[in-house]
Amino acid sequence: MNSRQRRGVLLLLLSVLCATGAFFGVISVINDVNSKVGPEVSAYRLKTDVPPYTALRATQFEKISMPKRWLSESAVTDLSVVSGKIAVTQLRKGSLLQDDMIVKRPELVAGEQEIAIMIDAATGVAGKITPGDLVNIFATFAGKTDRAPDQSRIIVPNAKVIDVGRLTPLEAKSGDRRIGRREAVPITFALNTTDAQRVAYAESFAENVRLALLAKGSPATLRPGDSAYTLNEDKNR
């Protein structure tokens, strides 16, 4: 083997050694990254904004993968948990779904039924009522004759709210005294048959239906005479 051949062999061995070193260098970098990043898990990102207190659907989310160590402990990794749940706040597009963003929708108990009515956003404690709250439902009725006074009544005390819908335009009733653009929110209650009939009657024939939000865990106790009011009661005092 002459000197030129020996140089060729040396260069070849040197190339092999460099390639081997580079290979192990890449493996070392990959292992280092894996040790820092860790295994990936599934998470769910919102594809659109979701208003508060609305029912959640699987189609509102997209599945993504990201390192487990980068997820918070409250991140949702199983989308089946949204079944029967509602959003507790405004959920923004692109946000990762967290356990504390959702709650279980209040359920009916034996003897109750769902009934939904449109409540004027300006007079219905707009933005403050959430599923699970208790409210008093007020209705105002015009006097049946010119001499009969207008009357306000608590038609259902301690009504349980189980769903709050989206803000929608409200069409004015015939003879409505109020003018201008108005909006309403569909609110669903869990009521017994009699109370549901009262609410349906009020929505059809009352001039206005209002809600009074009660303190958490403090149902109202009505004294005799509290359920109805006319302006004459103050005038006669």
Order of secondary-structure elements: HEEEEEEEEEHEEH
Question: Total strand count, please?
Answer: 11
Structural class: alpha+beta
- Radius of gyration equals 32 Å
Quote the average pLDDT.
78
Shape: rod-shaped
The number of helical segments is: 3
Unreliable stretches covering 5 or more consecutive residues: none
Tally of domains: 2
Report how far apart the termini are.
Answer: 127 Å
What does this structure look like?
The structure is a single chain. The chain has 237 residues and is α+β, with helices and mostly antiparallel strands. The protein has 2 domains: 65 residues, Alpha-Beta Complex (Type Iii Antifreeze Protein Isoform Hplc 12), CATH 3.90.1210.10; 120 residues, no CATH class. Helix content is 22%, strand content 29%. It has 3 helices and 11 strands; from the N terminus they run αβββββββββαββα. The strands form 3 sheets. Strands 5, 6, 7, 8, 9, 10 and 11 form a 7-stranded antiparallel β-sheet that branches. The longest helix is centred in the first third of the chain and has 35 residues.
